[in-house]
Write a structure and sequence with these properties.
24% strand; single chain; 448 residues; four-stranded antiparallel beta sheet; elongated; alpha+beta
């Protein structure tokens, strides 16, 4: 719980601060007086006022932030300060100030991806371990042991890139080219998968498996490295160094197979055969139970001896400074395009609103990525920063995109949109935002 809270606090704190700093910095460059720079909403818990009179505050509810500028529409302005008011600036200056927040998020995402590339990217090679029956991939000639290299023209050097390539195909119809390296000839084969509104309106859980690919599994010998004291395994008499031979008379060759048996047997006896110092030992293991996303699962408190994967299992890509910078820009552009595309598909009904996520899911993913290491956490921050930037660019009143829409109309018409129309639009925008937020939170709770 503490890690989850700290992870989401760090993630949102960085992204919101940088977003609001974008507004603040360009506003100051355009000669606008900034009254308050706030991270969070509600009662301030820390306040600092600089020599320009800007109040910097950290508020109690860390779910957003704002930059309040001098503006005649929001209160009286002294005559000598009218030239510092936001509403007195040219329409192009106002557009620049409003757009600076989302652009700052995109710049931050470039920086995060740049750091990820500098650290070197290591990932499992996308070698197929099996094909799901009656899936799109089952209709082509790809086989177990073949390595996916391109989907719809996108390079797929890892399973993550396979997943991203497939994400862009949700709701798509037509022939999709797939390229892969044949396991026997090592030559590049080309085939086409026919899609018909693929996954339209459904909840997206596992794109790779839905498309028909099952990643190959590495064999982890089920040799025990650690037994948690007072756990189910400890109580049953399992010792460090034991090798699991069978469970319920079924041979166990892979640790993952044993884990599957345990998870499916909460509070149910499992008859084990172990090899212990050249002797066969039989015992009964009764897994404890706990709640998970998939219902009640068993656990026993064991850790397996780690193995070292050979080079053929993964790829390591090292980047120079320039290549890392290019990767940061290209990856951010790719994620911006994918996010906008997903929003459009959701509006068209190709992607279900059940896939909307709120603060609970974000917190869980933040904690999980932080637990997986610095690269995973930086990648999560980059994606979240892109999402925040894209969300704010949507033409919804109350968001930056809504302000940009009004200012663009003003630039074309050479006169501002009437205050009455803007107030009405803001009410609609607020209702829409609160509805989306309610749906996202409801989805979060339903997933729990």
């Amino acid at each position: 719980m503490i890690q989850t809270i700290l992870s989401i606090a760090v993630a949102l704190g960085i992204l919101i601060t940088f977003h609001e700093f974008g507004h603040y910095y360009i506003a100051r460059r355009c000669g606008v007086k900034v009254l308050r720079f706030s991270i969070g909403f509600g009662k301030p818990i820390y306040t600092y006022v600089n020599k320009e009179g800007t109040e910097f505050s950290l508020a109690l509810i860390p779910l957003g932030g704002y930059v309040r500028m001098l503006d005649e529409r929001e209160g009286s302005v002294a005559k000598e300060e009218m030239h510092l008011a936001f509403n007195r600036k040219s329409v192009f200056q106002r557009i620049s100030i409003v757009a600076a927040g989302p652009i700052a998020n995109f710049i931050l995402a470039v920086f995060f991806y740049f750091c990820v590339a500098l650290l070197g990217i290591q990932s499992l090679s996308p070698v197929v371990g099996g094909i799901t029956p009656d899936s799109p991939a089952s209709l082509i000639n790809i086989r177990e042991g073949d390595e996916i290299v391109k989907i719809n023209g996108q390079d797929t050097r890892s399973w993550e890139e396979v997943n991203l390539a497939l994400a862009s195909l949700i709701g798509h119809s037509g022939n999709i080219p797939v390229e892969y390296i044949d396991r026997d000839t090592q030559g590049v084969m080309r085939d086409q998968v026919n899609l018909n509104e693929w996954l339209k309106g459904g909840e997206i859980s596992n794109l790779v498996r839905s498309f028909g690919f099952m990643p190959r599994r590495f064999i982890i010998p089920p040799k025990i490295d650690k037994v948690i004291e007072d756990g189910a395994a400890y109580r049953s008499g399992i010792l460090k160094g034991d090798l699991i031979l069978s469970a319920n008379e079924q041979s166990v060759k892979n640790w993952l197979d044993f884990v599957n048996v345990v998870q499916m047997s909460p509070n149910i006896d499992i008859q084990l055969q172990l090899l212990r110092q050249d002797e066969t030992v039989s015992l009964t293991l009764v897994p404890d139970s706990r709640e998970s996303e998939n219902g009640l699962v068993g656990y026993v408190g064991l850790a397996v001896e780690p193995i070292e994967l050979s080079q053929e299992w993964y790829k390591t890509i090292d980047y120079s400074l320039g290549a890392a910078a290019y990767y940061g820009v290209a990856k951010t552009g790719e994620m911006i395009q994918l996010t906008f595309s997903s929003v459009i598909k959701m509006l068209k009904g190709l992607i279900s609103i059940e896939n909307l996520s709120g603060p609970i899911t974000i917190a869980k993913v933040a904690s999980s990525s932080a637990d997986s290491g610095i690269q995973s956490f930086l990648t999560f921050l980059a994606y979240l920063s892109v999402s925040l930037g894209v969300l704010n660019l949507l033409p919804i009143p109350m968001l930056d995109g809504g302000h940009l829409l009004f200012f663009s109309i003003e630039a074309i018409r050479r006169k501002p949109v009437s205050e009455r129309v803007q107030i009405f639009a803001y009410k609609i925008g607020a209702s829409l935002l609160f509805t989306l937020m309610a749906v996202a939170v409801f989805n979060d709770i339903a997933r729990l």
